[in-house]
Structure formats: C-alpha cells, structure tokens
Amino acid sequence: MVLLNNVAQAQKKLAGHVRARRLAVGLTQEGLAARSGVSLPTLRKFEQKGLISLESFLKLLMVLGGLDKLTAAVEPEAPAFASIDDVLNDAPKTRKKGWRK
Q1: What is the mean pLDDT of the chain?
Q2: What CATH number has the domain bearing residue 26?
C-alpha cells in the first residue's frame, strides 16, 4: 500500500506513472496525444503538474494500458461477514456491569 499525504502527491505520482508508461512503449508526447485524443498542451500540463480531467486521464490509460489495474484497485473488498449472525458471533463479549446487592 502506498501512503500519500495529500492529493497533489497522488496527482504527481499518477503523472509520473503515465510518463514512465509512455516512455516504456516508446511514444513521444505528440504521439500519445494523437493516439489518445488528448490535446498536447493537456498532456504536457498533466506530466508537469499532475492536473488533468478524469476523461482525459482515462483516454491516456486506454492507449497506454493499465486501466484494468486501476479499476481493480478500487473494487470493494469481499465482505468480512456473510450474515448478521457472523457479526454478532464476532462481537467481543463484554461483561455486564451493574450494582450488586
């Protein structure tokens, strides 16, 4: 798990990942912009500052790959309990407190 202190760090990390993927597949900024339909200034701003719309980000991932990993990362985990009985059985047993006579 990667811990990020704020949104700006997350944006820069995503931008760095996209830039690394672009370079790994041998695309220039111009080539990726043309293939994805994202304008070149938008792509440059994203790689430099991490600022981009969700639509443009998804377009980039569709060209570079990795969209499946991103969607898998936000999938909810399997529930820990199958029924209310499982929840009640897992609850800690607390001692009843009261007045003694």
Answers
A1: 85
A2: 1.10.260.40
Domain count, the chain: 1
Show the tokens assigned to 95. 């001692």
- pLDDT of 24 > 80? The answer is yes
Instruction: Please calculate the CA angle 6-61-73 and round it to the nearest 5 degrees.
Output: 55
Q: Which domain holds residue 74?
A: 7-85
Which segments of the chain does DSSP mark as H helices, in order? 7-24, 29-36, 40-49, 54-64, 67-73, 84-90
Do the beta carbons of residue 43 and residue 60 sit within 8 Å? yes
What is the rounded distance in angstroms from the CA atom of residue 84 to the CA atom of residue 22? 48
Q: For residue 35, is it within any domain?
A: yes
pLDDT over 90 percentage in the chain: 49
User: Do residues 15 and 23 touch, judged by C-beta distance below 8 A?
Assistant: no
